[in-house]
Amino acid sequence: MSKQDISQMGSARVSIEVLEGVDCVLKQGASDVEINFYQSAAPNLAGVNIPNLVKLDGRNLFIERIPNSISLNKLQSNPKVCEQLASLHRSQYVPSFPVKKHEWTNVATTEALSILDLPESAQSSIKLMQSLSSCIFECSGLISGDTNDGNWGTRANGELVLFDWERFGHGSPAIDLAPLVSGLGAVSEYELIIRQYSQYNSSLPEAELMKDLIIAKCWIIIEVVNILVSRNNPETTKYINWYRSNVPQWLASVANAL
Predict the structure, then answer these.
(1) Of 27, 80, 208, 250, which residue is 20 to 30 A from 16 by alpha carbon distance?
(2) What is the mean pLDDT of each successive set of 10 residues along the chain, which is 258 residues long?
(3) Has keyword Kinase (predicted)?
């Protein structure tokens, strides 16, 4: 068995393996959510392309390797992205196992703001968004919870696939759409992805989805900062400096859309 380590931000150790002649991704120490997802949920999610489960050995999860990465620009112009996400969000499947609980706590906000050291006005705006955030977590629909461009790829036949399902849970579609907007995003960029997504799922009013998207994007800032710091990620300083430079202006630019 040969292997190549590809671990990045995740808590599990991830490597490329060849198992009985088949290229696989091995996640050592995979979470209960992801193990149960591949065993129970994946076969029931029609319309969503998910890597095949090759083997489960204790907490070692062997899944199909998706060989080709895809850039965020290409994802943004690919209609299959919103089509697949809409299929997931409209699914009637009810998980029989505990899924990831997504939430935005006071503790998380306090920790992230102490690191970011933003102006008082920006801190107040973030705290306001947190106070409004129950709307994105109380939705009963299924979500991936982690749709950043690093978690998409294509098979050799060009088929688009979404992988890394350890944050599978319930929430607003906005949680899955927000990472597909470059950077923090302008209101016009949110309007564009809402139009694209609404072609496949029009169950949420566009004004509501806009509000949810902005809140979700702000929540992602808090999540990313705290994850980077807790895992001693070597890129932490770069991200923190970028957020310090861009978050205050972004918050001002989206305030009227809330």
Answers:
(1) 80
(2) 40 86 93 98 98 96 97 97 98 98 98 98 98 96 97 97 97 98 97 97 95 98 96 95 98 94
(3) yes
3-state secondary structure of 48: coil
Structure tokens at 230: 């807790």
* Listed residue (101, 118, 98, 89) closest to 202, CA to CA: 89
Q: What is the maximum alpha-carbon separation in the chain?
A: 58
Taking the C-alpha atoms of residue 190 and residue 42, their distance in angstroms, rounded to an integer, is 29
CATH class of 68-257: alpha beta
Could you tell me the fold of the domain covering 3-64? Phosphorylase Kinase; domain 1 (3.30.200)
pTM over 0.90: yes
| Cα torsion angle, 172, 233, 10, 81, sign | positive
